Amino acid sequence: MSQHTPAALGQRTVSPSLPRRAVLALAATLACGAALPLHAQTHASGWPTKPVKLVVGYAAGGATDVIARLVAVKLGDQLGQPVVVDNRAGANSNVGAEAVARAPADGYALYVFTIANTINATLYPKLGYDPVKDFEPIGMIAKIPNILVVNPKLPIKNLADYVRYAKESKDGITFASSGSGSSIHLSGEMFKMQSKLKMLHVPYRGSAPAVTDLLGGQVDSMFDNTPSALPHVQAGKLRAIAITSAQRSPLLPDVPTLAESGYAGFDVQSWFGLAAPAGTPRAVIEQVNTALNKVLAQPEVRTRLQELAATPDGGTPDKMRQFAAAEIKRWREVVKESGASAE
């Protein structure tokens, strides 16, 4: 093992033959370099020198894609290079995640890491990537709550009615989802675990066909993403009886949360963050994080996110790392108890 000489500890040695004035000048130069903010040192390195790819694990048009494109344009302005969205749909976002996990760790391939990736950690017996080890978190983007909606023809005006209907119905109550293992599905499973109600899950291949059958009365209810359900609620075609986030939504101020309706601590939201392949230089991670937080602070970005029922939620890479770890643990328990499996 090498000895802890000044050079080994990162200190600089100066020849005693140098004039005192030169020594002081060198010391001042080193001190100034160390005092530079991290983002300033990164910019000096020249990254990025070409467009940055932002991979989305879903097809164009969905909430993840819309949010990614909003952020990408503004992020490109901050970084000085275009940020180009690349849709890699398939296997509940696993195709896109695996592509980025295997990409060079040079900062030119980023990924929109979502709640699905923390669910998939347990839902899929085998993944082509590790959601923890293969990614370096950059920062959170936003969160979107789900809404418990019912067909308005049912005698259900509020959550108490929902519980009573489920208990009094011979077959319990049905709830649709966009697919087994989706956040829409597992929101219902989590409520089922807490309420102990008899609830039957009816999976569909996507949110659109599930909502169609809910509107037609083929299923009773759904814990749908707010952007998908909101137009139908506003048109009176669906009735919103509770929201899954800890706080009420400004877009539906009269709809209570599940937490305030008797299910303390219930807080489920779809969420979106940025991540890079593991091994990406820390300076690049910090630079993108700084740019992302500046983007999320822009009034026009915040307004557009709020129109999508999304709450901007920036912060540090460590904040996202801790949050994702907690989500993996939480959904592991729900997936196992519900018996959910990948389709």
From TrEMBL:
- Give the Pfam families listed for this entry: TctC
Q: Keywords in UniProt for this one? A: Receptor, Signal
SUPFAM superfamilies per the UniProt record, alphabetical:
Periplasmic binding protein-like II (SSF53850)
User: Would you indicate the residue range of the signal peptide?
Assistant: 1-40
**The keyword Signal is annotated on this UniProt entry:** yes
Source domain of life is: Bacteria
Similarity comment: family membership: Belongs to the UPF0065 (bug) family.
Q: What is this protein called?
A: Tripartite-type tricarboxylate transporter receptor subunit TctC
Please report the organism this UniProt entry assigns to the protein: Acidovorax delafieldii (Pseudomonas delafieldii)
